[in-house]
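Bumping my old thread because nobody answered last time. Still need a sequence for this structure:
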């Protein structure tokens, strides 16, 4: 693709406007343009966009803050109003396996996945020996740098390191082990859930000290295509109680609380809206609920984020993607409470042209 054609792709300019994004999410009036949002972009997608469009050409790789400058440059180029930010230097140890990555932009070293048969904690002995990370020991260097260097129109969206209540339990125990333990070792499940909650509270408390952090996005897959991973009562006890705390902390600090969660959550949606008090919901797929359907059902009480189906993005033509985006925006954009994006994340198996067409069509919608 020649350079002139690449430049025509984003001929409608977008100026970062985190305040407009926040108003859109909180449904505070008619948005002046389409706002875009993603849980994350796979590194392979980031690299491909940057290489194709020369986004990082002027960034010195020897600069110790080059990764943060790259984040700003890429997010600005793509039309986002934020960068992702969190604490650094902490990881949970899970039982991860790898397999060959067959994506078009294949991941070096293969694709990793968590072993959900049995995790590192199956007994009280495992629980006591587990190397629990401590948020107080984590680095805030990136958040500190963003406080001083982030462009005025952008904000930090805190996402990724906290609020993994369902995922934490199933990854640490293994999904099968967790299901058995709910009947046979419920006290162990309760203890692990408390450690995850305590960790998340300490983590979020540190993040909320930074003024440029304007959005809090909890990420926690609680379901699958046909329902919840655990029963509604167990989900309320072990997952939603934690999200209540996260949402209350965010709201007390004047920040919206967004939730990403895959799966059919219809049996707990009222809990999420009325009890947890989420401001927005993310992760939609056509086999469960489209963003248009969600907007009609819940759009007067929360924002709808993303929803351009991943399978559709993978299998469709650029023209079909553009048509789908226009149809979605016609149904969801007006009145606020909708941000354009994929149904889950920008995975490295989504054709790059389709992803960029989605963004470009969003730029053009109200231009």
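Sorry it took so long. Here it is:
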């Amino acid at each position: 693709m020649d350079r002139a054609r690449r430049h025509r792709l984003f001929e409608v300019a977008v100026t970062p406007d985190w305040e407009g994004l926040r108003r859109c999410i909180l449904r505070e009036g008619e948005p002046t343009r389409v706002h875009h949002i993603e849980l994350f972009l796979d590194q392979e997608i980031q690299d491909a966009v940057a290489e194709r469009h020369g986004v990082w050409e002027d960034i010195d790789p020897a600069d110790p803050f080059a990764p943060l400058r790259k984040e700003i440059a890429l997010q600005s180029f793509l039309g986002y109003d934020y960068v992702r930010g969190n604490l650094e230097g902490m990881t949970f140890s899970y039982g991860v396996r790898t397999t060959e990555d067959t994506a078009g932009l294949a991941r070096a070293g293969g694709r990793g996945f968590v072993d959900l048969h049995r995790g590192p904690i199956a007994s009280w002995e495992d629980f006591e020996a587990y190397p629990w990370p401590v948020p107080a020991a984590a680095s805030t260097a990136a958040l500190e740098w963003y406080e001083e260097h982030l462009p005025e129109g952008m904000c930090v969206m805190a996402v990724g390191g906290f609020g993994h209540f369902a995922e934490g339990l199933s990854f640490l125990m293994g999904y099968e082990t967790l299901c058995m333990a709910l009947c046979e070792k419920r006290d162990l499940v309760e203890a692990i859930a408390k450690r995850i909650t305590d960790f998340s509270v300490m983590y979020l408390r540190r993040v909320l000290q930074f003024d440029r952090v304007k959005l809090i996005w909890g990420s926690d897959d609680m379901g699958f295509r046909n329902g919840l991973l655990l029963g509604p009562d167990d989900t309320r006890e072990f997952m939603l109680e934690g999200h209540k705390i996260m949402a209350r902390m965010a709201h007390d600090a004047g920040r919206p609380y967004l939730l990403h969660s895959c799966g059919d959550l219809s049996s707990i949606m009222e809990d999420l809206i009325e009890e947890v008090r989420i401001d927005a919901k993310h992760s939609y797929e056509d086999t469960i609920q489209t963003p248009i359907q969600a907007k009609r059902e819940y759009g007067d009480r929360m924002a709808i984020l993303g929803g351009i189906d991943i399978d559709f993005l993978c299998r469709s033509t650029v023209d079909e993607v553009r048509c789908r985006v226009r149809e979605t925006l016609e149904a969801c954009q007006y009145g606020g409470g909708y941000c354009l994006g994929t149904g889950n994340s920008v995975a490295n198996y989504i054709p790059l042209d389709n992803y960029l067409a989605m963004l470009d069509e969003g730029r053009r919608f109200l231009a």
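Residues 3-86+140-161+212-364 form a domain with the TIM Barrel fold (CATH 3.20.20.210). Let me know if any region looks off to you.
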